[in-house]
Amino acid sequence: MIYGLYIGIFFTFFSVLLYATGQTNNKALGYISFPLYALAIVLAQIHYRNSELNGVISYGQAVGFAVAAMLFSGII
Predict the structure, then answer these.
(1) φ, ψ for residue 19 (rounded to 5)?
(2) How far apart are the first and last CA of the chain?
């Protein structure tokens, strides 16, 4: 849940930054959020794997973690 919270807060600030600068209709900046979101999920998985699972993660655990992180970031 913590990783989803961090990702949700980051993208909330990113959206506010786009709104504050008047760039909400800029498609190029909007498309930047997709690879940033994927990168944030992968970095969270790597950190989770190294800190909680002693460097070993199965495919199911990785997918489950990503879905949970996306769920909680989407709630934010």
Answers:
(1) -65, -45
(2) 11
The predicted model gives 32-60 an average pLDDT of 92
pTM: 0.81
Q: Please tell me the distance from the alpha carbon of residue 73 to that of residue 11, in angstroms, as a whole number.
A: 9
Q: Residue 59 pLDDT > 90, yes or no?
A: yes
DSSP readout, 44-59?
HHHHHHHHHSTT---H
* Residue 63 C-beta-side C-alpha neighbours within 13 Å: 3
CA angle 70, 18, 2 (to 5 degrees): 25
Rounded Cα distance between 50 and 57, Å, is: 9
Rounded Cα distance, 23 and 18, in Å = 5
Q: State both tokens at 58.
A: 């199965």
